[in-house]
Design brief:
The complex is a heterodimer. Chain A is mostly beta strands. Chain A has strands at about 5, 10-15, 20, 25, 30-40, 45-50, 55-60, 60-65, 75, 85-95, 100, 105-110. Chain A is globular. The relative contact order of chain A is 0.35.
């Protein structure tokens, strides 16, 4: 079945550092890919998405490119802020179907 | 616009008691999802509804769990009897008809502790 694998956290870094969170997936066909963010005490929020190969999703300074050849959707941000401290979830939805499959989440802690 | 509203935000109960979690989706959304989040298992989809009809409940752990959606603006997730291993954060999410499959709006969750 479909699955999403993320790097385990926590990831701790200093303000203005570069952030990368790795995400790879297993799915048949051409799924859509997503990054969700969960701030402390809140529900998940959609951060960005990509629906086909080579698409780049971007939002709030975060970017991720849908790489079909490596089945990856790594999240990057060039200069993180303390307010980016959160748990980040990679997810996929199949080409046909209604379910969203989440990775295990990666906790990011940005220190001033 | 109000987001997805869940209640209660926190619930502490004793083993064997009945627990009812409630969800009000975003007005106009036609799909509703119940997820459970634990440290050990991450985010698990329990059940989802389209147009108030349960479509897939394969994630419901066992017969102690049941979910209903009597109308487009309300859903419940019931656990009876509750057990300590049911302790988790339960999220409700909704999706609009025109949205992509993965574009869910989540509530803030209901944190359940079963003693």
């Amino acid at each position: 079945g479909d699955s999403v694998t993320q790097m385990e956290g926590p990831v701790t870094l200093s303000e203005e550092a570069f952030l990368t969170i790795n995400c790879t997936y297993t799915a048949t066909g051409y799924p859509s890919l997503f990054w969700y963010v969960q701030y402390p005490g809140e529900g998940l929020q959609l951060l960005l998405k990509a629906t086909k190969a080579d698409d780049k999703g971007s939002n709030k300074g975060f970017e991720a490119t849908y790489r079909k050849e490596t089945t990856s959707f790594h999240l990057e941000k060039g200069s993180v802020q303390v307010s980016d401290s959160a748990v980040y979830f990679c997810a996929l939805s199949p080409a046909a179907g209604n379910k969203l499959t989440f990775g295990g989440g990666t906790r990011v802690l940005v220190k001033p | 616009d109000a987001g997805v509203i869940q209640s209660p935000r926190h619930e502490v109960t004793e083993m064997g008691q009945e627990v009812t979690l409630r969800c009000k989706p975003i007005s106009g959304h036609n799909s509703l999802f119940w997820y459970r989040q634990t440290m050990m298992r991450g985010l698990e989809l329990l059940i989802y509804f389209n147009n108030n009809v349960p479509i897939d409940d394969s994630g419901m752990p066992e017969d102690r769990f049941s979910a209903k959606m009597p109308n487009a603006s309300f859903s419940t997730l019931k656990i009876q009897p509750s057990e300590p291993r049911d302790s988790a954060v339960y999220f409700c999410a909704s999706r609009g008809l025109a949205a992509g499959v993965g574009e869910l709006f989540f509530g803030e969750g209901s944190r359940l502790t079963v003693l």
